[in-house]
Amino acid sequence: GYNSLQEYIATQGPLPDTRNDFWKMILQQKSQVVVMLTQCNEKRRIKCDHYWPFTTEPVTYGDITVEMVSEEEQADWALRVFRVSHVSSGPVTEETTGPKSFIHCW
């Protein structure tokens, strides 16, 4: 967490209208690990938006740029590492302390 290793944030999966806010929260709270316990689609129902880049090409969500650094997929989990940065009208103005690990389990 931001103040100690014992802190965490529990939230629903981002929806299309909240995806940009989700990434802003990740950057502001300096989250190092995100664990996703659902798939984007389950039983033909959309559970959350696909809120991360599909490839290593950086994607901008609002004023946050997300770049996939690495990806490892298995049958029931995936580990993705991202570089997350805040972008103003010029060059990068703030970057997180390091890559963020996203663990997707289902």
Automatic annotation (TrEMBL):
Write down the InterPro entries for this protein, in alphabetical order.
Prot-tyrosine_phosphatase-like, PTP_cat, PTPRO
GO biological process terms, semicolon-separated: axon guidance; negative regulation of canonical Wnt signaling pathway; podocyte differentiation; regulation of glomerular filtration
Domain Tyrosine-protein phosphatase as annotated: residue spans:
1-106
Q: Which GO terms describe its molecular function?
A: cadherin binding; protein tyrosine phosphatase activity; Wnt-protein binding
Q: GO cellular component annotations, sorted alphabetically?
A: GABA-ergic synapse; glutamatergic synapse; plasma membrane
Annotated protein name in UniProt: Tyrosine-protein phosphatase domain-containing protein
Native organism taxonomy? Eukaryota, Metazoa, Chordata, Craniata, Vertebrata
